[in-house]
Amino acid sequence: MQTIPLHDIAHSRSGDKGNHANVAILAYTAAGYDWIKQHVTTNAIEQFFASLGSSKVERFEAANVNALNFMLYDALGGGASRSLRIDTQGKALGQAVLQMRIPKPDNLDAMTYSKQ
């Protein structure tokens, strides 16, 4: 199966909520949103960020902005003021998730930013 990096069809934002990380993935198009809903599952995010040791991953859908929002509970090693991690606020997690490989869609051109 041929794959592409997630950043080909989406961008992201991330940050912290105390000891929890918030990672939003925003598809460039409605077609891209439909694709990421199928392939960027809670389980896929849990496996991708397994090294963070999250206690739970929860997904929220925001179809009005073509976005998925993931909460990674207990992922920040205690939070900004308690953690010794380099990224204590989860700001880099959004960039990291864009490196996730997903199956290449047949209609990739309908999902890329350059076609908008």
Layout: helices, strands, pairs:
Layout: E1 3-5, E2 10-17, E3 20-27, H1 30-39, H2 42-48, E4 56-62, E5 67-73, H3 93-97, E6 101-103
Antiparallel strand pairs: 1-6, 2-3, 3-5, 4-5
Explain this structure.
The chain is an alpha+beta fold. Helices cover about 20% and strands about 30% of the residues. It has 3 helices and 6 strands, in the order βββααββαβ. It has helices at about 30-40, 40-50, 95; strands at about 5, 10-15, 20-25, 55-60, 65-75, 100-105. The strands form 2 sheets. It has a 4-stranded antiparallel β-sheet. Strands 1-6 form a two-stranded antiparallel sheet. The two termini are about 25 Å apart.
Quick gist of this model?
This protein is of the alpha+beta class and 116 residues long. The protein has helices spanning 30-39, 42-48, 93-97; strands spanning 3-5, 10-17, 20-27, 56-62, 67-73, 101-103. It is elongated.
Rounded to an integer in angstroms, the radius of gyration calculated over CA atoms is 14 Å
Termini separation comes to: 27 Å
The tally of strands reads: 6
Largest sheet, described in full?
4 strands, antiparallel
Give the low-pLDDT segments. Answer: none
